[in-house]
Amino acid sequence: MAPQIPPAPPTGPSRPGASEENLPMPSRNPLPLSASQEAQVREVFNARVRNLCADEIKAFAECARTRTFTIPFACRALSHAMNSCMLSHATPDEHDRAREDWFAQRQMRFREREKKERRKMEQEKFHREWWGLPERDPEDVKRELEKLALKERIGGGYGRSRRGEEQEVRERGEDGKT
């Protein structure tokens, strides 16, 4: 007769959903971003880490400036110091701070984009006047201004207050009424 193996104690919680209560939230900013927005967050993150390790990076660059193939040998200690500094500062917490900075800069980016688009429209208008070209269709200009008023999309959609306005814009565009 085969020896009896005692049943293993349960590894999970006895009630469903209890494991989620004990697990920490992986990020303080769980909102999904598009690939280009995540790339912008990575740029902010990398810039923050480079700023924190600026002295080590500068020391390594000074060592490597006059060398070619001897860099790995002559600057090994500086290279290790630079890499260890960057690894010590490249943490999930630092990434979360970079993401928070990116969200804090949303309004500034929106104003810059709006200013740039308005300047572009003014330049195009001047160009048309200067060369005697016909003016643009007022409906096209109005559509561009409405599009410019829409906020940046975060997490796959506009904010709650913008959804109704976006629907109104679509309906007016389809009906052709103003």
Mind explaining what this structure looks like?
The N and C termini lie far apart (87 Å). The chain is mainly alpha-helical and 178 residues long. Helix content is 67%, strand content 0%. The chain contains 9 helices and no strands. The chain folds into 2 domains: 35-103; 106-175. It has helices at residues 18-22, 35-52, 54-64, 71-74, 76-89, 92-104, 106-131, 138-149, 160-175. Residues 1-35, 156-178 are annotated as: Disordered. Residues 1-13 have a biased composition (Pro residues). Pfam families: Cmc1. Required for mitochondrial cytochrome c oxidase (COX) assembly and respiration. Belongs to the CMC family.
Report mean pLDDT, rounded to a whole number.
79
Approximately how much helix is present in the residues? 55-70%
- The total count of strands amounts to 0
Structural category? mainly alpha
Q: Count every helix, treating DSSP H or I runs of 4 or more residues as helices.
A: 9
Biggest pleated-sheet summary: none
Low-confidence stretches: 8-26
Strand content: under 5%
> What does the oligomeric state look like here?
single chain
Number of domains: 2
What is the terminal separation in angstroms?
87 Å
Along the chain, the helix and strand elements come as HHHHHHHHH
Cα shape: elongated
Radius of gyration: 28 Å
Region (Disordered): 1-35, 156-178
Function: Required for mitochondrial cytochrome c oxidase (COX) assembly and respiration.
Biased composition (Basic and acidic residues): 162-178
Subcellular location: Mitochondrion inner membrane
